[in-house]
Amino acid sequence: MEQYVAKSPSSESSKMSSDPAAPDLQPRSALTPDDRKELLKQLYLARYFDVRLIKEKKRGRLRGTLYSSHNQEAIIVGSLFGLKGTDWISPIHRDMPAFFMKDMRAGWRNPDRIGMSVQEVCAQVWGKATSPGRARDNWSHIGSRAKRIICSTSMLAGTIPAAAGVVYADRLDGGDAVCLTFNGEGSTAQGVFHEAVNFAAVRKLPVVTIIENNQWAYGTPVRDSLPEGLESFAGRAAGYGIPGYIADGQDVLDVYDKVMTAVNRARSGEGSSIVECISFRAYGHGDHDDDRAARYRREFYGDRWEEVIAEERERDPIAVMKRHLVGLGEMTAEEAKLMPAEGKSAMEVNDLDFPEDVVKYLNEGVEFAVASPPPPAEEGSMWVFKEGGR
Amino acid sequence: MSAAPAPLVDGAKKNYLLALREAIFEEMESNPNMLCLGEDIGILGGAFGVTDGLQLRYGRDRVIDMPISEAAIVGVGCGMALNGKTVMAEMQFIDFISCGFDQIVNMTATFHYRTAGDVNINMVIRGPAGGYGGGALYHSQMNEAWFCHSPGLKVVCPSTPKDAKGLMKSALRDGNPVIFYEIKELYRRRDLEEFVPEGEDALIPLGKARIAREGESITIVTYGQNVHHCLEAAKKLDAEGFSAEVIDLRSLVPLDEETILESLKKTSRLLVVNEAPMTCGFAGEVLARMSQNAFELLDAPPARITRMDTPVPWVKPLELHVLPSVDDILQAALRICRY
Ligand SMILES: Cc1ncc(C[n+]2csc(CCOP(=O)(O)OP(=O)(O)O)c2C)c(N)n1
Ligand SMILES: [Mg+2]
C-alpha cells in the first residue's frame, strides 16, 4: 500500500513529488496564472467573510457561536478549488465559507453553479427565512441535495457515514461524484469516524476524509488525542488500507495538490483516502472562548507562546500564497504589500485591506440577509414528517 | 503540581454552576478514589467552567481530558467504576450523550443486574441540558426519557443551586449510574443565587421531590427549567383566585409518587409540565401513574404541557413556538381549575 505520510508539513518528505511511486503527484502543475490569482482572491474572500462576521457579532447583530476559520482558509479554498459542481461536500462548524465557495470556479455570481450563494449563507447566519434551512438549525447546519452539500448535525464526524452513502447511491445511478468530508483532528476520536472510514475503504468508495489539524480541539491539545509514536492522524490511514496524505494547511497549493490527488484517485475508482491538513487555530474555539483560549494556550505553550504566534502570523495562508506568486514572477514584491490583511486579527483589519470585489460580493450577501424576513414562528412545528409518501 | 486557586467552600452565595462545582470539589477532596473524565474538563476547565481549577488541584491522573468520544468517556468510566472507582463523566452537552448510548444503556445500566449484584457502577454522567437558550437542535435537548426507559439508571434534574449541589453529592455516592441533567440556562441565573450548605449538610437524597410552592387549588408537577416557569404561572394563577402547589420532582428515577399523592389529596387537580417532547415523555409517565393510583382523588381530567413533538429549532420565535411557555401553563392550569 502506498503511503505518503510525513512527519511535519515543512519536512521535505511531505512533498509527494519526491515519492516516485506516487501517481499524478502535482495537480497544481495544471493551474494557470489566472487560477492562482483566483486562489489568492478566494483566500481573501474566506478571510473577509470571517472578519466581517466577527465584527457583526461584536456589534451584537448575530446570534449563536462563531467558529472562526481564520488562518485555516487554505484548507477550505484548496480543497474545493478542483472539485466538480456535481461533487458532494460535508463541511463542519469551522468551514462556514465552504458553503458558498463550492463550485465557485463556475462563476461567483453564476446562478447555475452547484453551491450556495453568499446571500443564502448570510441569510442562514442572520437567522432568516431565506436561508436554505430557513434558519431551523444554526450556522453551519445547512445543506441541500441539489447543491450537493450534506447537512450536518453537531455530532462530530457524524456526516462521514452519510458521505459514504451518498456516493454509493451516486455510483449506482452512474455518477462519478466524489464526496469531501471535513473534520477536525479532535473529531477523529469518534467511533463513527472509524466505522465510516472503514466502510468507505472496504467498498473503495470515493470519499475523501479531510482532517483539519489545527492543533486544538476546543481546550484539548493534540497531545491528548494522538498517541505518542503516531506522528500524524493521516498515519492511521495505513490501518484502513488507504492512503493518508499530509498537506501543509497554510499553503493552498499544497492542499490543492494533496486533495486533488485523493479526489482523482477516488474518481477513478481506486477508493477513499485521508488528507490531513496541518494548520493552527488562530483564536478561541468559538468567539465565546477567545479570552479563555488566550489564557490556556499561553499556559500550555509557556515560553514558546510568542514564537507560536509569530510563526502563525508568518504562515498566514494569504502571506504564503503571495510568496508563491512573487516566486513565480506573477506578482511583484511591491504588489504583495498591497491589501495587507495577512497576519492580522479581525479587529486589526478594515475593508481597505481586502480586494474591492471581495468586499462588494460579501456586502451583497449581508444586505440580502438583513433585508430578509425571519421565518414565521409556526414553522417550528413544520417538516417533522414528509407528507404524501415517497 | 502548583497550588490551585482556592476552590473549596467559601460560604458565599452560589449560583447553580458554582454549587455544582463545589459539590464536585468536595467529593474529589473527600474521596481519593474519585476520578473525572470528559472533553476539555482539565486544561480548559469545562465548556461552562464547572470543573474550573479541578485539574490544577487534583492532577492529570484524576482529572482526565478525554479524546472526543462519548462512548469512550462512558465506557472507560464504567470500567473504572467496575474496578472500584467513583466516576464523574461529563458530556459537554447532554445532547451528545447519544454518541455513548450503547455504553450507557447496555453496558453500564445493566452491570449490577448481569453480575447478580457482584459489580456496581458508581458513576455520574452529567451535562448541560435544556432549551430556551437559542441552542438549536443539538444544544437544547432534554433526552431524559431515553434513560428513564432504561432500567438500571437513575435520573436526576435539579432546578436550584442547593439541589444541584446536594443531589450531585448524593449521586456521586449512590452506588448506581446516575444521569444528571444540569440546566444550562440556570447555571448563571442571578435571581437563584443562594447560600448552599457545606459537606454532609449539603446532601439531598435521590428520589425525594421538593415542594417548591405550597397551594390548595391544583398540583403542578415539573422539574428542571420548567419549575421556574411553573412558579411564574402560579403567581399569575393567584391573581385569578387559584393557588397552585408546584412540585419539583428533582429525581425522575426513582420517582417520589408519595409527595405527588399527598398533594393531590389536598388539590384534587393535576397538571404535569416538561420541556421534552410529548410522546413517551416523562410527563406522560407521571400522568399514567396518577391516573392509576389517584383516580379517585381527581376532580378534573389531569393534563400535561410539553414541547410539541418536534426538535428544538434555532431561531427564537420558532423555539418559543414549540416549547412550553408560562402562558401555556397558566391556561392549562386555569382550564383544570375551572373544570
Ligand atoms: C459528539 C460531539 N461531542 C462533543 C462535541 C462538542 N464539541 C464541538 S466542537 C469540539 C471540538 C472539535 O475539535 P476538532 O475536531 O479538532 O475541530 P476544531 O473545532 O478544532 O476545528 C467539541 C468537543 C460535539 N459537537 N459533538
Ligand atoms: Mg481541531
Widest sheet of chain B: strand order? 2-1-3-4-6-5-10
Largest sheet entry of chain B: 7 strands, mixed
Structural class of chain B: alpha/beta
Strand ordering within the main sheet of chain A: 1-2-3-7-6
User: Judging by the overall fold, what is the CATH architecture of chain A?
Assistant: 3-Layer(aba) Sandwich
Helix share of residues of chain A?
Answer: 25-40%
CATH topology category name of chain A: Rossmann fold
Number of helical segments with 4 or more residues of chain B: 12
Radius of gyration of chain B: 20 Å
Quick one: CATH class of the largest domain in chain B? Alpha Beta
Which blocks of ≥5 consecutive residues of chain A have pLDDT under 50?
1-21
Order of helices and strands of chain A: HHEHHHEHEEEHEHEHHHHH
The assembly state of the depicted protein chains is heterodimer
Number of strands of chain A: 7
* Tally of domains of chain B: 2
Please explain how this structure is put together.
The complex is a heterodimer of chains A (390) and B (339). Chain A has one domain (23-363): Rossmann fold (3-Layer(aba) Sandwich). Chain A has 13 helices and seven strands. Chain A has helices at residues 33-58, 73-80, 98-101, 118-125, 160-172, 191-202, 237-240, 252-267, 290-301, 305-314, 317-327, 333-336, 356-371; strands spanning 88-90, 179-184, 207-213, 216-217, 220-221, 244-248, 273-278. In chain A, strand 6 (244-248), helix 8 and strand 7 (273-278) form a beta-alpha-beta unit. In chain A, helix 1 runs antiparallel to helix 11 and helix 4 (118-125) crosses helix 13. The model of chain A is unreliable at 1-21 (pLDDT under 50). In chain B, the strands form two sheets. In chain B, strands 2-1-3-4-6-5-10 form a seven-stranded mixed sheet, sandwiched between helices. A five-stranded mixed sheet of chain B has the order 7-9-8-11-12, sandwiched between helices. Chain B contains twelve helices and twelve strands. Chain B has helices at 16-30, 54-58, 70-82, 101-108, 111-114, 144-148, 161-171, 226-239, 257-267, 282-293, 316-322, 326-337, and strands at 34-38, 63-65, 86-90, 123-129, 154-156, 178-183, 210-213, 218-222, 244-248, 251-253, 270-277, 303-307. With 339 residues, chain B is α/β, with parallel strands linked by helices. Chain B folds into two domains: 16-202, 3-Layer(aba) Sandwich (Rossmann fold), CATH 3.40.50.970; 210-337, 3-Layer(aba) Sandwich (Rossmann fold). The model of chain B has no long low-confidence stretch (mean pLDDT 97). The interface between A and B is large, with 38 and 40 residues. Residues 184-186, 214, 216-217 of chain A line the site of magnesium ion. Thiamine diphosphate sits between chains A (94, 154-156, 184-187, 212, 214, 216-218, 281, 285) and B (39, 68, 70, 92, 96, 99).
